[in-house]
Amino acid sequence: MLPSEPTDFAALAQVLKALADPTRLRIVALVADEELCVCDIECALDLPQPTISRHLATLRNAEVLTARRDGRWMYYRRAPQADLASEKVLTALLEVSAPERSADLERLRRTKGGNPCC
Fold this sequence. Notes:
The chain has helices spanning 9-18, 22-30, 38-45, 49-61, 84-96, 98-112; strands at residues 36-37, 65-70, 73-78. The protein is mainly alpha-helical and 118 residues long. It has one domain (9-112): Orthogonal Bundle (Arc Repressor Mutant, subunit A). The chain has a three-stranded antiparallel β-sheet. A hairpin with a 2-residue loop joins strand 2 (65-70) and strand 3 (73-78). Helix 2 packs across helix 4 and helix 3 (38-45) crosses helix 6 (98-112). The longest helix has 15 residues, at 98-112. The radius of gyration is 15 Å and the shape is globular. The termini are far apart.
């Protein structure tokens, strides 16, 4: 079945480019259902802050994620997609990334002991 709206190929290409990295795929999966701060993402992926920040900037510029500041902390969550094709791509990603996401969330729980750092 074809979407009722024409596909915005420029927007879809931007999303696909942003997702063309395993670390960024893991970040999107992590924040799919909940908002997380940068330090939580660092702990879950066991990567340094500069690496995480660079990937978050790419995802934010592609409008895959949104960010909000609370004091000195930045929180990220999945952005709603205006383009139906982009939304379908992200939905498919989340379906296939469930095992990896579970492992990352478990690492976050073990590292943080369930206590938020922020």
